[in-house]
Write a structure and sequence with these properties.
Length: about 325
């Protein structure tokens, strides 16, 4: 099987490409290598991908450039992971999210329609917004986003439902919960805290530490994505995860464990071997108090089962960080 991956130089995209190549699939990766965070990290991820991987530098939000880059290329599945990421950055630069996450998503839906290829796409746990019912289940309403990023991801789900209805394209949306691990993103909490603690700097702890997150290790995320690649939703009129009767399923991919931020900081301190100096701060705009994934739907349908807790995953990230930065 040959798989087209958008955001192939990203954290999840590169890890997915590596897993698919290891099992004998071929991968065509596209990425615009933007400078939202250091491009060198993206390039280093790509360097690890060997035989069976090909790459095109292109912005999927530019439909003409996308069509030109993929002319003559064949693929059996699309995994659309590329997006403008980050909840807080969406407050500073909203137009980047509209272009990448809305225009870009429509371009990928059109590509899936034209090629008649099933597509798996990245949504986000942020679509649950200020929901207070825990854990978050795909059957819950998700109509009250608290950031523009979350709103664009919810819009992607709605547009996908429309394409599944009109064109019967098998589509699977994945609501990822706080992904972390080796080769992760510099804008994420674990990277920032590790960097600051090693440098002897203060770490900002929001909502005075009263925060909970469902931290999901990258290997578990990739296992869930691969399961969805291999089992596109059927166009059989049955109710899919998330409630659609079209060939469109929605799944949470999380660790099914809501960790208190202060407990994760304690694991991080132990892995680094140094206590953190903390600055307690109020809640940030666009942030949520707790996330917690109900994974029953993907467990039932695809046999997904996360295996890595923060006690193992956080030290694995710290080991990688020290090696990568030689610190």
């Amino acid at each position: 099987m040959r798989v087209l991956i958008t955001g192939a130089a990203g954290f999840i995209g590169a890890a997915l490409a590596e897993r698919l190549l290891a099992r004998g699939d071929q991968v065509l990766g596209i990425d615009n290598l933007n400078d939202y965070y250091q491009v060198s990290l993206k390039e280093d991820r790509l360097k690890r991908l060997g035989d069976g991987f090909s790459f095109r530098k292109v912005d999927f939000a530019d439909n003409a450039a996308l069509a030109a880059a993929l002319e003559g290329e064949a693929f059996d599945r699309i995994v659309h992971l590329g997006a403008q990421a980050g909840v807080r950055y969406s407050i500073e630069n909203p137009h980047a999210y509209v272009q990448s996450n809305l225009v870009g998503h429509v371009n990928m839906l059109e590509l899936a329609r034209a090629r008649e290829v099933p597509m798996v796409y990245a949504s986000s746990s942020s679509v649950y917004g200020g929901n207070t019912k825990l854990p978050f289940a795909v059957e819950d309403r998700a109509d009250y986003p608290v950031s523009l990023y979350a709103a664009t991801k919810k819009a992607d789900e709605l547009m996908s439902e429309t394409y599944a209805h009109l064109y019967r394209i098998p589509l699977t949306g994945l609501r990822f919960f706080t992904v972390y691990g080796p080769w992760g993103r510099p804008d994420m909490m674990l990277w920032k805290f590790t960097k600051r603690i090693l440098a002897g700097e203060t770490i900002p702890v929001f909502n005075n530490g009263d925060m909970y997150r469902d931290f999901t290790f990258i290997d578990d995320i990739v296992s869930g994505v691969v399961a969805c690649i291999d089992a596109p939703p059927a166009d059989d009129g049955t109710v899919k995860a998330g409630g659609s009767v079209k060939p469109h399923a929605l799944y949470n991919i999380g660790n099914h464990q809501s960790e208190k931020l202060m407990d994760v900081i304690a694991v991080l301190e132990s892995a680094i071997g140094r206590k953190a100096e903390m600055e307690m701060l109020p809640m940030q705009p666009g942030d949520v108090h707790k996330t917690y994934a109900d994974i029953e739907a993907i467990r039932r349908d695809l046999g997904y089962e996360p295996t890595t807790g923060v006690e193992t995953g956080v030290p694995a990230f710290v080991d990688w960080y020290r090696t990568y930065h030689q610190v």
